[in-house]
Amino acid sequence: MTLAAAFVMLALPTCGRAQDLPQTVLFADDFPAPHLDPAKWVHTSLNDFQTEVADVVDGRLRMGAATIGTDDRTVKFHGVRTAEPVVDLSQPCEVCVDADWNDQANGCYMTVAVYLCPTVAENPRDEPDWLALQYIGVPPGRNARCWVSVRTAGHEEALLTENWPEERTGRSIGRQKLHITLDRETLAIAENGASLLEVAEGLGLSFDRAYLYLQHTSHSNYRMREVFFDNVLVGR
Known about the structure:
Elements: H1 3-11, E1 25-29, E2 41-46, E3 51-57, E4 60-66, E5 76-82, E6 87-88, E7 93-100, E8 110-117, E9 130-138, E10 143-152, E11 155-160, E12 175-182, E13 187-191, E14 194-199, E15 209-218, E16 225-235
Antiparallel strand pairs: 1-16, 2-5, 3-4, 4-16, 5-15, 6-15, 7-12, 7-16, 8-9, 8-15, 9-10, 10-11, 12-13, 13-14
């Protein structure tokens, strides 16, 4: 390996460990610049906010939402998506991202999510087809639960619920290092190096290419709550 090639490998985000780096990198961003790269990312937002931010702070993507005084009838959705459909499922693909819950004192009615969606939208959840991994705040607020689901032609199927609604305690989460390996029929998700979910066959995704969405949602009447994303990598 040349010195230049070694430098490129060191500069790329990794999927947990250096040996997990995909052989072919389709997209990568560890947010080294002080601003989001408009060639890589497009801001998304739906419904009213008191204050809403999606920017880079200390080398990480920050998303923040304050919703005091906003419409009680709506959930507020915002985040970013890749400018191009960088996830190619014609072959097995890997998607890696760090999602930081940021030690919320009150994470009720808040989610942090990763969506793979073939279409462009201000809120990917409204689209008819997608795959999503969400961390959803559990009352009284510090814990969260993970929810993984796939939507096809408007019908959502849950793949992982962590026994919700029977189990309402949730669990403590922090900086979650996610490694998603998938094609149209199979799915494996690792969280902080441990297996979270495996679908060996029959996933049945309806799309070959997808935009990567990083999302944050909040209901109304909450003070500013911030979460972070980092080390985004798509490859095979």
